[in-house]
Amino acid sequence: MTEREALAPVRRLLDGAPGRPAAISRDRGAAVSKTPTNFGNPASLRALLAAVLEALDIPHPATIGGTEAHDQILNDRVTHAAIALRSVLDDKPLMDIEWTTAYLREQLAKHPATGYVTVNQAHAALAEGKSWSEAVALPAGEDQ
């Protein structure tokens, strides 16, 4: 079952609910998108874009060994960012942009860029005089 199918009953309940923002039309045949009437202010849009950037812009792993953890975290974060963007751009969004941004940030907090050594962490450890092996070893307590 897709997310859209799972949320269909909720969408039916919320149809016509007051305070719901209008959405940008995704009709490929339309020459001009509908103008949203309650799409949020520029600060709200900027906050959402900042959260999406935060989701996508995670540090690169220092070694190939960290690639799997990095890629899994990035995949999870990209999925949540895509869901947030789809929600906001939907013809009948369930929630407003501020709620969607807060929800995205909550999901990103559940998927922090941990579990691998980043390039910057390795460079900092090397600058402290550690060997390469020490610099790219996960700190005690991090999942391996």
Low-confidence stretches: 16-38
Principal-axes geometry comes out as elongated
What percentage of the residues does DSSP assign to strands (E)?
Answer: under 5%
Structural Rg: 20 Å
Largest sheet: none
How many strands appear in the DSSP assignment? Answer: 0
Overall residue-averaged pLDDT value: 80
Q: Could you tell me how far the N terminus lies from the C terminus, measured between alpha carbons in angstroms?
A: 32 Å
Describe, in plain words, how this protein is organized in 3D.
53% of the residues lie in helices and 0% in strands. With 144 residues, the chain is an all-alpha fold. α2 (42-56) runs parallel beside α4 and α3 packs antiparallel against α4 (97-109). The protein starts with a helix and ends in a 9-residue tail after the last helix.
Short synopsis of the structure:
Helices cover about 55% and strands about 0% of the residues. The protein is mainly α.
Any descriptors?
53% helix; elongated; 144 residues; mainly alpha; 6 helices
Chart the SSEs and their pairings:
Elements: H1 3-14, H2 42-56, H3 67-89, H4 97-109, H5 119-127, H6 132-135
